[in-house]
Amino acid sequence: MTTRDEAFATYVAARRPQLFRAAWLLTGDPHRAEDVVQAALTRLYVAWPRVQRADSVDAYVRRAIVNAHVDEGRRPWRREASVGDALPETAVAAPGAAVEEHDALWSALRRLPAGQRRVVVLRHWWGLSVEETAADLNVSTGTVKSQTSVALATLREVLADDLTKEST
C-alpha cells in the first residue's frame, strides 16, 4: 500500500462512523446514508493529494457529503423510494438522554425539509459556525440563519406535540 493510500485509509477509519451518522441525519435512511458516504469518499480519494495539503480535510468531506446527498435526491428512482423509520445501529444517543427522547428527536429531524435538515446537521451536529455552514452549503449566511431558525422552531413544535400526545 502506498503512503497516499495509508493516509487515506487512516483518515477514513477514524472518521467513517461520524460521516455515516451525519449522512444518516441528512437522508433519514441508513442505506442512502451509506451511498452518500461512499460517493463522498470516492470524491475524497480522487482529490486526496490536494485535499490533504489543505487546511481542513473535514470541510472538504462535509461539502462532499452534502453534495452527494443533493445528487442522490436528484436521481429519479430515489423519488419513488420511501424513507425508512429504523434508526441505524451506529446512531449514538446524547449522554443522559432516554431512548424515547432519542427516537423522538430523530423522528422530528426526519420531518424537516432537506435544506433545513442540512443546516441543522452542519450547525448542531458538526458544530460549524454560520459562516462555515454557509460556505459548505454554498448559500448566504442569512439563508443559514433563517433555515436554522425555522428548523429549530419546527423541531420544538414537533417535540412538544409528541410530549403532549404521550402525556394524554
TrEMBL record:
Tagged with keyword Transcription regulation: yes
Keywords: DNA-binding, Sigma factor, Transcription, Transcription regulation
Superkingdom assignment: Bacteria
Signal peptide annotation: none
Pfam families: Sigma70_r2, Sigma70_r4_2
Identification of the protein by name: RNA polymerase ECF sigma factor
Family the entry assigns: Belongs to the sigma-70 factor family. ECF subfamily.
InterPro entries assigned: RNA_pol_sigma-70-like, RNA_pol_sigma-70_dom, RNA_pol_sigma-E_actinobac, RNA_pol_sigma70_r2, RNA_pol_sigma70_r4_t2, RNA_pol_sigma_r2, RNA_pol_sigma_r3/r4-like, WH-like_DNA-bd_sf
GO biological process: DNA-templated transcription initiation
One of the record's GO molecular function terms: DNA binding
